[in-house]
């Protein structure tokens, strides 16, 4: 059986830290906490679970802090988690099983990271992360913000899920990341393609839409981005143009994403929405059907399940109704209901079908 070191970096996490540590103690052989300047009871909570607590002076670099935490690990494999993550009983059981059967030839284990769920608990946004790594490989983190772990070797892909679940109390500085990027600009630090992409995301989130578009373009021009980031850049640019009411450019960006790979369900639905808005229902139907087809083989890519499940079915219900095909309209409404049984729109459609 392998042994696991949990490595975490924290700051002012008193509202969530006990929640994740109570999960981790069930399968981790060592818990390492690196505190970057807490002023609340975070350290007191951590001491209930481990004596391996280290204070670390924050230097505006998540990668450096994570690398410091990794340097303190002593077990076979290193697991990283954030304080506002949770792991349910089912997935804790899967990790315990993994510990007992994982062959030491594996260098990396991927797990699913669920960052958003709907009211039914269904994942709406998820992606895979290199979550468990062999300590002897000395893998390192890179990037001041939105850091990534550079890995190679033999990889085991799993469906084990970790859920990101912040509390309603949000003590995070919403300007923290953009401040770090703008400090890098001031210090004339050369941005990597990844930096450009995530800086553009921060600009978008801060409603600086034209600046965000410029950075997405600069990112794509490098032609060095990860394929999934390239596609997201096109989608996010389309979002910016939509808000700026430049709809033709919105379409151009969505279509540009097709140059990188087969259509992602989100892109297909967005194009379907645009045709539906123009009352071109037959064309909209084509795109919604594409969204329901088999997704691209992008195990590490972003998955927005709404766009490949209930949403295109609901829109197909509307489109078929408008072209007079009641049978297909009812069929797709029922398929949407399988995912959202209490959705008022779907129930209202059922009433309409009965009246007609």
UniProtKB/TrEMBL annotation:
<dbReference type="InterPro" id="IPR001173">
    <property type="entry name" value="Glyco_trans_2-like"/>
</dbReference>
<dbReference type="InterPro" id="IPR019734">
    <property type="entry name" value="TPR_rpt"/>
</dbReference>
<dbReference type="GO" id="GO:0016740">
    <property type="term" value="F:transferase activity"/>
</dbReference>
<keyword id="KW-0808">Transferase</keyword>
<dbReference type="InterPro" id="IPR011990">
    <property type="entry name" value="TPR-like_helical_dom_sf"/>
</dbReference>
<feature type="domain" description="Glycosyltransferase 2-like">
    <location>
        <begin position="5"/>
        <end position="146"/>
    </location>
</feature>
<dbReference type="InterPro" id="IPR029044">
    <property type="entry name" value="Nucleotide-diphossugar_trans"/>
</dbReference>
<dbReference type="Pfam" id="PF00535">
    <property type="entry name" value="Glycos_transf_2"/>
</dbReference>
<protein>
    <submittedName>
        <fullName>Glycosyl transferase</fullName>
    </submittedName>
</protein>
């Amino acid at each position: 059986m392998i042994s696991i070191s949990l490595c975490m970096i924290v700051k002012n996490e008193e509202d969530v830290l006990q929640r994740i540590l109570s999960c981790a103690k069930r399968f981790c052989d060592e818990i390492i906490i690196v505190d970057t300047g807490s002023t609340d009871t975070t350290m007191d909570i951590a001491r209930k679970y481990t004596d391996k607590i280290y204070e670390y002076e924050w230097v505006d670099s998540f990668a450096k802090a994570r690398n410091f935490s990794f340097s303190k690990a002593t077990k076979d494999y290193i697991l990283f988690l954030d304080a506002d993550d949770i792991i349910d009983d089912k997935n804790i059981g899967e990790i315990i099983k993994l510990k007992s059967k994982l062959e030491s030839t594996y260098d990396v284990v991927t797990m699913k990271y669920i960052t958003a769920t709907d009211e039914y608990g269904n994942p709406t946004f998820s992606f895979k992360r290199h979550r468990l790594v062999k300590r002897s490989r000395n893998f390192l983190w890179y990037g001041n913000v939105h850091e990534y772990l550079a890995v190679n070797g033999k990889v085991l892909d799993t469906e084990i899920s970790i859920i990101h679940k912040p509390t309603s109390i949000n003590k995070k500085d919403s300007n923290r990341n953009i401040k770090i990027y703008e400090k890098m600009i001031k210090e004339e630090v050369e941005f990597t393609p990844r930096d450009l992409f995530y800086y553009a995301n921060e600009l978008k989130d801060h409603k600086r839409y034209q600046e965000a578009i410029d950075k997405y373009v600069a990112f794509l021009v490098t032609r060095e981005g990860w394929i999934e980031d390239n596609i997201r850049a096109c989608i996010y640019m389309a979002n910016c143009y939509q808000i700026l009411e430049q709809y033709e450019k919105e379409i151009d960006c969505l279509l540009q994403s097709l140059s990188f790979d087969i259509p992602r369900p989100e892109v297909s639905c967005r194009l379907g929405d645009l045709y539906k808005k123009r009352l071109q229902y037959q064309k909209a139907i084509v795109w919604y059907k594409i969204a329901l087809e088999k997704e691209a083989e992008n195990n590490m890519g972003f998955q927005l399940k709404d766009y490949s499940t209930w949403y295109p079915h609901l829109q197909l219900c509307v489109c078929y109704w408008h072209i007079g095909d009641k049978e297909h309209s009812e069929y797709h409404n029922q398929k949407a209901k399988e995912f959202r049984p209490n959705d008022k729109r779907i129930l209202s459609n059922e009433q309409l079908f009965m009246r007609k």
